[in-house]
Design brief:
The complex is a heterotrimer.
Chain A lengths: L1 H23 L4 H13 L2 E3 L11 H18 L6 H13 L4 H28 L8 H23 L4 H15 L5 H9 L6 H33 L10 E3 H26 L24 H9 L2 H16 L1 H10 L6 H23 L2
Antiparallel strand pairs in A: 1-2
Helix pairs in contact in A: 3-5, 3-10, 4-5, 5-6, 5-10, 6-7, 6-9, 7-8, 11-12, 11-14
Chain B lengths: L6 H29 L9 E7 L8 E6 L2 E8 L2 E6 L10 E3 L4 E4 L4 E3 L5 E3 L8 E7 L2 E6 L1
Antiparallel strand pairs in B: 1-10, 2-3, 3-4, 4-9, 5-6, 6-7, 7-8, 9-10
Chain C lengths: L2 H31 L12 H13 L3 H8 L2 H4 L4 H5 L8 E3 L6 E3 L4 H4 L4 H8 L6 H5 L7 H6 L2 H5 L2 H5 L24 H4 L2 H4 L10 H7 L1 H9 L20 H5 L19 E2 L6 E2 L9 H12 L5 H34 L26 H22 L3 H25 L3 H8 L32 H4 L3 H14 L5 H12 L1 H4 L8 H22 L19 H5 L1
Antiparallel strand pairs in C: 1-2, 3-4
Classes of the chains: A mainly alpha, B alpha+beta, C mainly alpha.
């Protein structure tokens, strides 16, 4: 008797509590749970998504979350001042418990993220995932690429070792060469004519403030668009499976696997510190990070002003590719196989110059 | 549930769940260790701070070792070394020879030559260091 | 998706999770293994900070600061000023430019003694402390420096080593940084044989050479890079062979304490013209006690019987040298009787250094005499007691006997009849112009052939062993050998047949060896000795001083 009575009392209390909550937080639970089911749990994923090549969209997302978490953890110890930055990075790497691990995850995470994003772009390009009505998503995606690369550039400069300092100098110099807006952008980023303490703080601000916000907004837009359009089917009658639990497990696998890979990479190739930045001493070889090698190499070969314009042109083609592709196909009546040739050519050029720049010197 | 879970399924599920939980716990542990640095007691080292006959009985001298201020005093019983930080709220104390006492100007705390609280708000005696006298040399075990 | 695929996914998730656990454990292990730097912290504060800052600013002797930082002094907060503090009137007071600091330009053992009193005291009681004095005795002068060499040469020569016993204006003696050099004062450096070898080197006291030749030195060369040179003072030396410091300074627990008195365990004074047992004036111990100390060190590795036997033979070598020296002294006295220049102030059994400035060094005989004790005699004695076989033999007794022969020849030239008779004599025992010591056998084993054969002096001289026994007994009764040594000698003497290997026949293989040697001798005779070259006659004949055309044409 007492047991049943207690149960009744508990239920009553629970109901009262729910009333109290919903009065102050008037949401429609029913609607939310429906939407949740539709969008998340029952979302139909076409069978082709079981192929790992198609997981390359989720990978950068997972990696971004890792970067955000490890990044926040790093801000517990990092000091964004030119005289303390290097020392704080060294402190994290050498003295803080598991500091080397968090930093290694962050460092390797950034490298893997760039690779994942590039592979994702390659996949989308060759599977023509950008065809109408999905062109806008491609454009948002290209913004995501630019934001990712800016993340990498600003992040690397924060270590404030020789390579950071001089890569920042050279990089911002190149930004200064952009026609019309170059000088303005240069002053904006550097906070002065030369690379000073202002520059470091601005890069830091970009890296932990503006860029993450932009990134999150873009990611949300990107995913929302994918969901709204639905994952495109390869052929019309392709069977589907629901997002939860199968695709969810896939993402879980990706997450765990990435953690394993990043931790292993951290142990096997621990992140180094290099020499502290010395504004009076330019090292013999200044090189940007590997993902910039291709651009760097090409800009070295072409005359500067022409090179910048050329890069700009390439960027525009890349951003508006869905439309250009459409024009080339319909109006100019290019053969479909040209698509593959263009794609492979770009990839090969990129690889060639990256490898060339790596083995040079 | 539509069907009963077979034993094999159960084992597989438990296998995965344990694995996942285990890795999550380890992950969380590492991150927490990162966030909360353990304060390991620093190793003591022996350093020379003075020689005999530098101080008379009843005299105190201020020293700075490794950015820490210390007072060395000589009493009837021997040498004592104290931290110059008041145990109340951390101000620096001063030795007043004419009054034979340590005085903290912040809240008027007073310690005697043996580091004991005499009057004022300080809750406990001055922090002292272990002294070792070897021949004519006075060492302390410094952290 | 089928249930099977789902299950597979779960399995994969689980497997990856376990992999992650392993990797995270590796990460933790890596974390733990990262050695938290136990680099000791060096504080620079107070006056020392002023010194360091100013020196760094002006770039004066800045590497010394790094040296000091690596020292144990730095870790204990003992900085520049603690040693270099000075009063205005000090002999080495120096005011640092543009400051009000007065420093001592040259800290002396008096400064070191403020903390290291015991070591300084031990040093003062050792023979290192009289190193300068023996080079320049009060009222007398070391002849090389006084007469023979321009002083400028001795400044970078003799003085550099002998100033280990420098007498400072402030009353202290010695140079502490001779072995552990400033400013690191590193104990590992001081313990190295090469440190001693900076001075204990050369034809007159080739100690480092003797060490390197010895088995101890060989083991040192082979393994020393793996030894822990920073062992704690007072604990047993963790080496598998001794170095100079091990025997002469380091502790041999539990009985023997470490000391800075390098003479504390020396039972012989063996650099002087005569070998003398060290007196109690040095170290307040009898020579027997000192020898016991040394033997305690040996016995850390060696058996009692080996160490004592070795030392017995070495001691008898020391005494044998005395006999040789006495013979030479007597011989030189005879020179005087035949109107030669050597004064008797000079050779009274001892060198009276006062006579050197007047005469000496300019005649061959004087040189030979000097070398006999100062060079060959020392080499012989030190080699014998410190296991330098080559120095005992070819740079030792051989040279000594040669000197003796040269002196005899010189004596004969000058008409001394005893010398003339000696040269003409065909007696094979003639080279033993003095009494002999001997011990049956040797410390390293028993040979079945070494002591056999009629040609050996031991077997040639009548009643050899009885005579030798009587000599050793006399030495013992005079106090040159200890009770234990005499007892040991008697045991060996009673067992001499066995020790000499007499009851043992040589192994069969000896016959093989002898046969080979004989055949080789035959070969030499037949093929080498009697071999004539085709261009027959010598190109020079004693008959003609001119070039012999006839011969050349052939």
């Amino acid at each position: 008797m007492v047991r049943i009575k207690n149960k009744k009392i508990i239920n009553m209390r629970r109901e009262k509590f729910s009333e109290w909550i919903f009065k102050r937080f008037p949401i429609d639970l029913q609607k939310i749970s429906e939407m949740w089911e539709k969008v998340f749990v029952k979302e139909p994923i076409p069978e082709h998504m079981k192929n790992w090549f198609f997981a390359l969209g989720a990978t950068p997302l997972v990696l971004f979350v890792f970067q955000a978490i490890t990044g926040i953890l790093l801000t517990l110890y990092y000091v964004p001042s030119p005289d303390r930055a290097y020392e704080s990075v060294r402190y994290i790497t050498e003295e803080v418990k598991f500091g080397f691990w968090i930093r290694g995850l962050h460092r390797w995470g950034s490298n893997l993220m760039v690779i994942a994003v590039i592979l994702h772009i390659v996949r989308v390009f060759f599977t023509k995932g950008y065809k109408a009505p999905r062109e806008l998503n491609w454009i948002i995606g290209s913004f995501l690429l630019i934001i990712t690369l800016t993340f990498c550039f600003t992040g690397y400069s924060l270590i404030y070792n020789q390579l950071s300092y001089w890569a920042t100098t050279v990089g911002t110099n190149m930004i200064g060469e952009i026609p019309f807006v170059g000088k303005f952008l240069l002053l904006l980023i550097r906070g002065g004519i030369d690379v000073t303490h202002n520059s470091l703080i601005r890069l830091y601000n970009l890296h932990i403030g503006l860029l993450p916000t932009l990134m999150v907004v873009m990611i949300v837009l990107h995913i929302v668009l994918v969901r709204l359009h639905g994952v495109s089917k390869v052929y019309p009658d392709e069977p589907t499976y629901s997002f939860y639990p199968e695709h969810f497990y896939t993402v879980l696998q990706i997450m765990l696997f990435l953690l394993v890979a990043l931790s292993t990479l951290t142990i096997v190739f621990p992140p180094g510190i290099g020499e502290p930045a010395d504004p009076n001493n330019t090292p013999l070889h200044i090189k940007p990070e590997w993902y910039f090698f291709a651009v760097y190499s090409v800009l070295k070969i072409l005359p500067l002003k022409f090179g910048i314009w050329f890069m700009f042109f390439v960027l525009l083609v890349f951003i508006f590719w869905p439309f250009i592709d459409e024009i080339l196909l319909r109006r100019v009546k290019m053969k479909p196989s040209l698509h593959y040739i263009v794609g492979i050519a770009v990839i090969l050029i990129f690889l060639f110059f990256t490898v060339y720049e790596t083995i040079k010197y | 549930m539509d069907e009963k879970e077979t034993r094999r399924d159960f084992i597989i599920r438990i296998f995965s769940v344990i694995g996942f939980l285990g890795s999550s716990i380890l992950l969380l542990r590492n991150i927490l260790l990162y966030i909360f640095p353990k304060v390991t007691p620093k190793k003591e080292r022996k350093i020379l701070i003075a020689r005999e006959e530098e101080l008379k009985i009843g005299e105190a001298k201020l020293l700075t070792i490794s950015d820490k201020d210390l007072y060395i005093v000589r009493t009837q019983q021997g040498y004592k070394v104290f931290s110059a930080i008041c145990t109340h709220l951390g101000c620096k104390i001063k030795w007043e020879a004419h009054n034979n006492r340590f005085y903290c100007p912040c809240h008027k705390g007073v310690f005697d030559i043996n580091g004991k609280v005499v009057s004022g708000p300080p809750p406990r005696d001055l922090n002292s260091y272990r002294v070792e006298v070897s021949g004519k040399l006075i060492y302390i075990w410094f952290v | 998706m089928e249930a099977k695929e789902l299950k597979l996914q779960k399995v994969v998730v689980g497997a990856t999770a376990y992999l992650l656990i392993i990797v995270l454990i590796l990460v933790s292990a890596f974390e733990v293994s990262k050695s938290r730097a136990t680099e000791p912290k060096v504080d620079i504060s107070g006056t020392t900070k002023k010194c360091v800052d100013c020196h760094l600013n002006r770039g004066v002797a800045v590497k010394l600061i790094d040296e000091w930082k690596a020292s144990k002094h730095a870790q204990q907060n003992i900085g520049c000023y603690e040693c270099h503090k000075a009063e205005q009137n000090d002999w080495d007071a120096f005011k640092c430019p543009e400051s009000d600091i007065i420093v001592a330009k040259h800290p002396t053992p008096k400064d070191c003694a403020e903390c290291h009193e015991q070591q300084v005291k031990e040093f003062e009681n050792s023979k290192h402390a009289i190193a300068q004095m023996v080079m320049k005795a009060e009222g007398a002068e070391g002849p090389d420096r006084a007469v023979f060499e321009p002083l400028i040469a001795t400044k970078h020569g003799c003085e550099q080593c002998h100033n280990i016993g420098n007498y400072w204006p402030d009353g202290s003696i010695g140079e502490c940084d001779a072995c552990h050099s400033k400013h690191q004062f590193n104990i590992a450096q001081a313990r190295r044989p090469e440190t001693c070898g900076e001075c204990h080197i050369g034809p007159d006291h080739p100690h480092i050479e003797i060490f390197m030749e010895s088995k101890h030195g060989n083991i040192y060369v082979a393994f020393s890079n793996k030894w822990d040179w920073n062992y704690k003072v007072g604990e047993q030396v963790p080496f598998n062979a001794p170095t100079c410091a091990t025997c002469h300074m380091s502790a041999a627990p539990p009985a023997i304490k470490s000391t800075h008195n390098v003479s504390e365990r020396l039972a012989w004074e063996s650099q002087s013209p005569f070998s003398i047992r060290t007196s109690q004036y040095w170290g307040n111990k009898t020579w027997q006690e000192k020898r016991e100390q040394m033997l305690s060190v040996c016995k850390q590795c060696h058996s009692k019987s080996f160490a004592e036997k070795y030392m017995l033979i070495a001691d008898l070598n020391m005494l044998q040298y005395n006999e040789i020296w006495k013979t030479i002294v007597e011989l030189i006295k005879k020179f005087k009787n035949y109107g030669l220049t050597i004064t008797d102030e000079f050779f009274d059994g001892e060198l009276k250094l006062t006579s050197w400035p007047k005469e000496g060094y300019d005649e061959e005989v004087e040189h030979l005499v000097y070398r006999t004790w100062h060079h060959e005699g020392r080499r012989f004695r030190h080699g014998a007691i410190m296991m330098g076989a080559d120095f005992t033999q070819w740079h030792g007794i051989w040279d000594l006997q040669e000197n003796l022969v040269k002196l005899m020849n010189k004596a004969a030239e000058h008409g001394i009849p005893e010398a003339k008779r000696w040269i003409a004599s065909k007696d094979p025992n003639k080279f033993f112009l003095y009494p002999i010591y001997d011990v049956p056998g040797n410390p390293w084993g028993i040979s079945s052939i070494l002591y056999k054969g009629g040609a050996l002096s031991m077997n040639r001289i009548k009643n050899y062993w009885e005579k030798v026994y009587a000599n050793v007994k006399a030495a013992y009764e005079k106090g040159f050998l200890s009770e234990e040594q005499w007892k040991l000698y008697q045991e060996l003497y009673d067992n001499r047949d066995k020790e000499l290997g007499l009851p043992y026949s040589p192994p069969e293989i000896l016959k093989e060896h002898m046969k080979v040697l004989a055949e080789e001798a035959k070969y030499v005779k037949e093929n080498v000795a009697t071999f004539t070259l085709p261009s027959s006659s010598p190109y020079y004949t004693s008959n003609s001083t001119k070039y012999d055309k006839k011969v050349a044409k052939k």
